[in-house]
Structure formats: structure tokens, C-alpha cells
Specification:
Elements (H helix, E strand, L loop, with lengths): L1 H15 L5 E2 L5 E3 L5 E5 L2 E11 L5 E12 L5 E12 L11 E5 L4 E9 L5 E7 L7 E6 L3 H4 L4 H4 L2 H7 L4 E7 L17 E7 L4 E8 L2 E12 L4
Antiparallel strand pairs: 1-2, 2-4, 3-4, 4-5, 5-6, 7-8, 7-14, 8-9, 9-10, 10-11, 11-12, 12-13, 13-14
Length: 231
Amino acid sequence: MKKLAITISAALSALASVAVAEPLPGTSLEVFVESAAVAGAGRTVTLRRVPVRNMVTGAVNWYDIAFQLTSDANGQLSFERISQIDVSPPVLSISAFRAGLWQDDRGNVWRITGPAVGPNGYENYTLQKHTGNDANLTMNWSTEPMATHFQGNTYYSGYKVLYDAKDPELAFGTLDFTQTPSGAHLFYGWDGNSVFVGAQTVGENIIVFSSWSSGVQRDSVRLNYVGPAAQ
């Protein structure tokens, strides 16, 4: 019994300690098991809110996945089968927008500052380039609903229905340049003044930013948490 308990513990630790996302072979999907909550009951292991990201569109969906444990003829523990997969509703975790240094898939490092609480009580964040030659790039986003945050903005009001449909899942803001930059951008092809951006967390160590124009998502980029910024 002691050996079985140790084996179960090792299996759960392996599930919870995956360091990076892993693509599903033959698909455009990548899975973030490390961001899931692991729970157990009897011989059933449940992974709650496993984020699955479409690498083409940047869209993130969450799933609850349950496995059952069994043992083979040699007494080795294994997963018998998947007993259930359910879609979890998306939840925007505001607390996961961590201040500090973040790195994108191209090796560029960005600095997030915040939260700053505005007069309306919502939290505001800022993203700036920390390394490289895009020092003039600044992005700001807020937890405030788009209807009030972008009140009077013609880019929002012209596509209000499309943006409002995504508002519960994303914290929206804008990306601006003080001058035309060069080098590695946050988005390729959709960096520009007053471009809408949506921020979405995947656990507390991953943020997915998406760029939006005319109510349609144009691009996305994933940032991984590096650590606190030097004071």
C-alpha cells in the first residue's frame, strides 16, 4: 500500500509540474497541463480547467478531464481510460496579471506594471518593451468593461456587437506607438496606433495578448512570466 501511495503521488506530481505547453500532434492546438488544478477521489484523477490554445487563432478554451487509475499484471500503476471531458467556461483571472518581466516566443522581454486602480475602481495595467529597440511601444489595458472604458470611441462603437461578445473573456485596451518602431514588434503585421488588444490569462504564469481590428481578431502572442523587475 505504501508503494502504491508513493506511485500515485509521483504520477500527480508529474502532471502538475510540466514546465511548458506541448502541441497535440497533427493539430494546431497546444495544451497547458501545468496550469490545471489536479484533484483526486478514489481511483479517479481530475484535471480541472486545462487550457487548450489554438496556435493559429490564439483562442483559449478550458476543459475538465477525468482519468481512472488501474494497475497491470506487474502491479504498475497506469491510466485506464479517459472517463470524462467537459468544457469549462472561460474565467478571466484578474489576479494573474502579474507585474514583472515577461518573455515572448521570439525571446523579447517585456515589462508589465500595475495594477493601478482608476477612479472607477477598475484595475489598469501597462506593458512596455524591456529589451530591444521598440522602446516607444506602450500598451495599456483595463479590467473595466469595454462599454464604459471605450465610451465615445468610434473604433469600438462601430463594431460594438462583435466586441461585446468577447468582452467577458478578455480585458481590453489599446496599443500605441509614439513613433514608427523597427525590429521585433509585439504583433507582426498588426502593430499600430489605437489597435485594440485583449489580454487573457492562462494560469498565473502565461498571458495571451490578441490584436483586434474592426471587431475581428488579427493576431496573438503568448508571454511567459520570467520574474520580478529590478527596482
